[in-house]
Amino acid sequence: MSPVSQAAITQQTAxxxxxxxxxxxxxxxxxTLVCSAVLIWGFGHTVPSVLLHPAVPRPKILWVxxxxxxxxxxxxxxxxxxIRVRKVQxxxxxxxxxxxxxxxxxxxxxxxxIELGRFDVRVLHQAGADTFxxxxxxxxxxxxxxxxxxIVWRKNLELHRRLLFLATVELTGAGxxxxxxxAMHNLMFFCADALMLMGVWRDWTVDGRVHRVYKVAIPAMxxxxxxxxxxxxxPPVWWARLAHAWMG
Length: 248
Known about the structure:
It is a single chain. By secondary structure, this protein is mainly alpha-helical. The chain has one domain. Helix content is 84%, strand content 0%. It has helices at 3-44, 47-52, 61-84, 88-122, 129-132, 134-152, 157-176, 180-184, 188-207, 212-233, 237-247. The longest helix has 42 residues, at 3-44.
């Protein structure tokens, strides 16, 4: 091959190599920012009317919920940022705070779902509010499961960071669900699934293959989301009775 041809090939491949290097270094940090933006954008549609200036005062636990769950976004951004600046030891120490925060989120999330469900049924008289709470309960099952696996495999960086990425993406369904058009067409999980698939795209672009955790976890999560959607759109008798007993 002539020097001219070799130079032309090098010139063509250099941007692709730089793009791959950028994705390898910044993808997870960038996607954490994207997830945070989705949640801020989504909840920004409801915070003024629900928390700040409600026509009917909401349960106080919503304030606790907002602080605790916002804390996870800050934590996720800080943790991915620490990896980027190579503060691995600080990242590891702070990780145990994140484990405690995730456990707190589950307790607060379940308590908020029950309290808000009762409020929607008893005070606002919203039809179907009780059976819709399956969405919150499902999140509070899947999110801690992903975080727990990330803790167990914390010494395996490739597994660890992908599991935490999926855990954070799982929370975005609530943000997408606060956007009226997406909620009306039941697309909040579809949007969250699209964010998960960005991880598949990243792997394929950077590594030429998809990591096994995505091959297993993402199909399972998509099936889970489909089941949850069916549960609140066509609630089976047993769930309708159980939800009514809790919330009614």
